Request: fold
Amino acid sequence: MDQKLIVAMLFSVSIGTALYGLFYSYVGGGGTAKRRQAALMTGVMDHKGGAAAEQVRRRKVIADSLNEVGGKNRSRSLRLEEKLAQAGVTWSPAAFYAGSAGAGLLLSVLGYMVGGDLLLALCFIPVGAWAIPRWAISFMVRRRVNQFVDSFPEALDVIIRGVRAGLPVSDCLRVIANEGQEPVRSEFKVIVDALTIGMTVGEAVERLAERVPVAEASFFAIVINIQQKAGGNLSEALANLSRVLRDRKKMKGKVKSISAEAKASAGIIGSLPFLVGAAVSVLNPGYMAVLYTTTIGEICLAGGLLWMGIGVLIMRKMIQFDF
Reply:
């Protein structure tokens, strides 16, 4: 059999196996958990002695609020202006596109100066004009979200103490908007401005959950909406939420410390082939030259890089914990 055909067959089998392993968690295995969660939220699961009518009503309100907020967040496709706002920057879309084009042009010029190949330099344009700017925006969004999560429980404590002292919720929100820490202060300023133009508290905090893509903001919006629809003690509900958020923060710290070894191992495994290849190229250049000078070598090199990239994505999926 032709050697090229054998390489192509092995390459195809490798790609198919990798794609199956990468997307298996998305296409299967999650239906049972989702059905069980839905049963818990809607009260389908039976309990000893049944549930009181008030508990059933509150459970239905909670489920409706969760579905409403979650559905809005899932169905919305963020515009560039909203992504820039989530990152906490004041750039306009035109300025962002201009900066992205400049970054792509600069990176292509540097690639041409280093490699001397025009085709290779053109390949750097989409990297600098599309990938790097969007990675930078995503990094700034994550950093701002982490800052919000760190200071959000203190803002809830301000609302709790104010409500227990007899202050309206709107006054408590104004206190946070004036004296809170960034980025909580700026986000609550937007809420106060929305209340000033006649929007309800529930609608204003729902917009907070849309601007800040984090579960803590969604929890806050759900608690406020449930209190408005079903009634109850708001200070007690917010106190429970504050305690839950602090427990989540502690749990995230524990998970981060436990998964540190796995992340270090994944980093070593991902970088080892490149380090070994560079060392062999320096010590014995002729041994690695076949990968660059022959067609079969180039195919094997491309297949190895693709397989390595898919493996890195799989390891990244395995060591990330969302809860």
Remarks:
- The two ends are 51 Å apart (CA to CA).
- Residues 24-30, 44-48 have pLDDT under 50 and may be disordered.
- The longest helix spans residues 118-164.
- Residues 3-45+259-319 form one domain.
